[in-house]
Amino acid sequence: MTTGERAVSIPVMIGGPIERRSAGRGAQGRRSQPSPAPMQTQISPDWVRISGASAIALGFASGRFTRQFAFGGINLLLNYEDGCRSDCAYCGLARTRPGAYEDKSFIRVDWPLVETDQLVERMAACRESLTRLCISMVTSAHAFADTCDITRRIRSEVATPLSILVAPPTLNRRRIEELASLGVDMIGVGMDAVTEDLFRRHRTDVPAGGAGLRWEKYWQVVDDSRQVLGPWKVNCHTVVGLGETDRDLVETFVRLRDREIFSYLFCFNPEPDSRLADLAKSPLRRWRRMQLAKHLVEQEGFGVEQFEFDDDGALVELAGPHDVVEHAASSGVVFMTDGCPGESGEPGCTRPYGSYRPSEPFRDFPFHPTEQDMARIRDELAVEELCPGVRRA
Ligand code: SF4
Q1: If pLDDT is split at 50, 70 and 90, which confidence band does 102 have?
Q2: Cβ of 238 less than 6 Å from ligand 1
Q3: Hey, which bits of 61-161 come out as E strands?
Q4: Could you give the CA distance from residue 318 to residue 324 in angstroms, rounded to a whole number?
Q5: How many domains does the chain have?
Q6: What is the percent of the chain with per-residue pLDDT over 70, rounded to a whole number?
Q7: Ligand 1 within 6 A of CB of 3
Q8: What spatial distance separates the first Cα and last Cα of the chain, rounded to whole Å?
Q9: Which residue, 95, 255, 228, 105, is CA-closest to 174?
């Protein structure tokens, strides 16, 4: 599942380390156990984890970003004592990644634990500055019911558009309809690997078992979500750098665009101790070119035939109109974080440091890149090598 680095310094573990406490309201009736009396940890739905950036935005933690920018995309993550049942090769939450679940990072970001009701209160108090809310499910038997519970709590207090980054093994069409009826605005599917072979290798045929992660099931959930929520209300997270070719990515962008489904780009960012910890990130040039390619497909109507690939599937030429390519390559928006929009279509979910460390160049920008940033991006992109009619910046 996709959603960087211990990006910010957060001096407190909100909610503290996991400890035993009495059951909350969302858990009623579902964990009947013989004596001794059932005990409960700080788990969902009464507790959730939030991204470090979200913790700062809502005043749960102190810290600052390396650059100043407005931040209103709040990301929540379900929390269970036994974590996520899946074992994806690149994920910080994978079952076989060493360490206690509560100490694990997710997309290399620390996710502090907070009480759900307190979180909703803070959201309501900060509603003017919020742009997008998102609950990330994990593969767990309780994930769907708990996601509905948390959605109701949020929807009763806050109107900010809400996405669910779903765990497909836990869903069917009826459940997707239920999420929509509760006021969920968009559904994200963490496809991550864009070919069936890579999906199987990294997510299905894995040491602790895939826990129901199947390529066909993921696409079924994409299809069902598209039918239930309508055009441009579903997105697939796609990761650059898991072993796919440029052609694989472009074909995926086109396939999704043709169905009015967004592709959201993530750059593979190795999690320490994960099975892919030693796999190198994609070079910046390739990453920038995939950002540009995705934009040309999604916003400018490019088809696969307008991209030339070599025998290894690497992008070598752009055959589209030079002025369109030039305009896109000069547009900062193309290089901003790809995510669900805010109410007026502005970038909503901006996940700072989701694809890079604070010490590294921004892979995607949670703000509009400056003129200086654009000069650097143009160097990294070298678009004139792909499209000789485009001037060198
Ligand atoms: S892009 Fe959308 S679905 Fe993905 S994490 Fe952000 S809000 Fe959630």
Answers
A1: low
A2: no
A3: 73-78, 113-115, 132-136
A4: 11
A5: 1
A6: 87
A7: yes
A8: 36
A9: 228
Does residue 142 sit within a domain? yes
Entry pTM: 0.88
Let me know if residue 56 belongs to a domain: yes
Ligand 1 contact, 340 CB (< 6 A): yes
Residue to mutate, 51, 349, 351, 353, ligand 1, most ligand atoms under 8 Å from C-beta: 349
CATH number of domain containing 198:
3.20.20.70
Structure tokens at 106: 């997710």
Task: Give the residue-averaged pLDDT of 102-113.
Answer: 67
Which stretches does DSSP call E strand in the chain? 47-50, 73-78, 113-115, 132-136, 162-166, 186-192, 234-240, 262-267, 307-309, 315-318
Q: Is the pLDDT of residue 8 over 70?
A: no
pLDDT tens readout for residues 294-326? 999 999 999 999 999 999 999 999 998 999 999
> Which among 252, 244, 247, 283 is positioned nearest to 90, based on CA atoms?
244
Q: Per-residue pLDDT tens for 37-90?
A: 444 589 999 999 999 999 999 999 988 888 888 899 999 999 998 888 989 999
pLDDT in tens, 207-265: 888 888 999 999 999 999 999 999 999 999 999 999 999 999 999 999 999 999 999 99
Determine if ligand 1 sits within 6 Å of the CB of residue 233: no
339 C-beta closer than 6 A to ligand 1: yes
Residue 371 Cα to ligand 1 middle (Å): 27
My answer on whether omega of the bond before 341 falls inside 30° of 0, hence cis, is no
Report which protein residue has its CA nearest ligand 1's atom 5.
Answer: 3
Pocket test for ligand 1, best of 49, 71, 132 (most atoms within 8 A of CB): 132
Nearest CA to ligand 1 atom 1: 339
Query: Closest by alpha carbon to 167, among 233, 131, 99, 218?
Result: 218
List the structure tokens of 44: 């969902």
Residue 325, domain member (yes or no): no
Which ligand 1 atom is nearest residue 351's CA? 6
Per the structure, the complete domain to which residue 208 belongs is given by: 25-280
- Do residues 6 and 108 make contact, with C-beta atoms less than 8 angstroms apart? yes
CB 94 within 8 Å of CB 87: yes
Q: Do the domain assignments include residue 66?
A: yes
